[in-house]
Design a protein that fits this description.
Blueprint lengths: L2 E2 L2 E4 L3 H12 L4 E5 L10 E2 L8 E2 L6 H5 L15 E2 L3 E7 L3 E5 L3 H11 L3 H14 L1 H8 L7 H23 L2 H8 L3 H11 L12 H13 L4 E2 L4 H13 L3 E4 L3 E7 L2 E7 L4 E3 L2 E4 L3 H7 L6 H8 L7 E8 L13 E6 L3 H12 L9 E4 L14 E8 L9 H16 L7 E7 L1 H7 L15 H4 L17 E3 L13 H16 L4 E3 L2 E3 L2
Length: 520
Amino acid sequence: MPEAFDAVVVGSGPNGLAAAITLAEAGRSVLLCEAADRLGGGLATEELTLPGFRHDVFSAVHPAGAASPVFARWPLAEHGLRWDHPDLPMAHVLEGGRAAVLARDLDETVRSLDALGAGDGERWAAFARPLLEHFDALRHTMLAGFPPLRGPARLLAGLGLDGVLEFARVLLAPSSGLGAELFRADENVAWLHGAALHGDTPPNASGSAIGGVYLNLLGHAVGWPSPHGGAARLAEALASYFHARGGSSRTGARVDAVLGAAGRVTGVRLASGDLVQTRTVVCDTSAPGLLRLAEGVLDPGYVRRLLRYRAGPQTVKLDWALDGPIPWAAAEARRAGTVHVGGTGAEVVDAVTRAHLGDEVERPFLLLGQQSLADPTRAPAGKHTGWAYTHAGSGMDAPGALDRWTAAVEAQVERFAPGFRDLIAGRSVLGPGELQGRDENLVGGDVGGGSYSLEQLVFRPVPALSPYRTPLRGLWLGSAATFPGGAVHGVCGHAAATQALLADRLGAPGRRLRGARVSE
């Protein structure tokens, strides 16, 4: 006889873990299936370079995790989670030993921006202060299930109609347009672009501004911290709490297919051939992954719409074992957990545009992390870790392309930190294929779960009142491919599981499997 659970969750990234916890807290019997040999998905920490150097393989810096209303519900500190905060969340380095910084303290940020462009910091403060005063409402707008209702209503009460309309305008604006409104100095426009480029929308494209604005506001409100000991510690804390709530998990348990009959889920089939009976399946997978799992049981119209969902760009990620801290010419960058490397606003736009067109870029824009500054457990005494990634566009299959990108990335760091290359004791290079090979949700090296171009910024993966529901009753998608998208916050999985529970309560009285109710 096949095993039976009230719910099966496929994939154990932060969204899969959040979905599994939500279902277990509601008293359901839950099986969490993970194809890899560890739980966590994109939350992974390994010795990628040399023994004793602990690198976050994928996600590393988690402002949305620190702000997550989902994670805040759970006693994760009791299960081992501790956040490490660098002195500065972010510095955008410039030539001449200068930098524009994002500090937790708004006034410190104002002074940095004003030093580069008179009045720029004050204009940022005037723009940011009302949103920070109503940050909880903003958080429940940006980090909520779809449709977000509570947050916008509270924003309206706090900001008034004019304030909400201004926020809606920013939601649609390009980073270049908003940057020109706020700042006189191109260096400060670059500061905004750098935060915006944690997504994949170019600075001159509509919808790119909101990512930069929100990330910088998160820096003021909660910082840009990382889990002490590595990103895997967050996965371990979530998994520990899930197990404490009675949940079951299996690693090395690839789900081959979702089974259905008469328009609803009946179970899943594992690669081992084992069958698990269930009436609820939540998938923490990419959109193509969902299509693979549910091949033949999804409505053809839904399949056609899902096939139109666009992936984000390819990514190249480097990790370094370093004999010392990165010798940034800008003193501020030596205190920052995250450094944006790209120079002026014009340089950043040019680099991103060229990469978007598939060109190789001599001076790419980089997101760089140096977590060992705030967390000495990441490296042996006196040593440090560093990492950087860049969106590489297409063409990564060309002979030598990955080597050329590696050289360009390290030359760009050397430009702003002379002597950097002399400190490299070990190196790991993950191209698009290697990233997908380590986590199949990173399709083609897309680290965002799908593009954040304007049409997919809100309506992901398809336009629907509930983006988590599929036409097959009992099958739900709760990954970064759904609203509110990527970053480590668990909202997508929690929203999918919450809606699954609501559908269950509205269904038939049901019967029990392993002591928990399953709808008939």
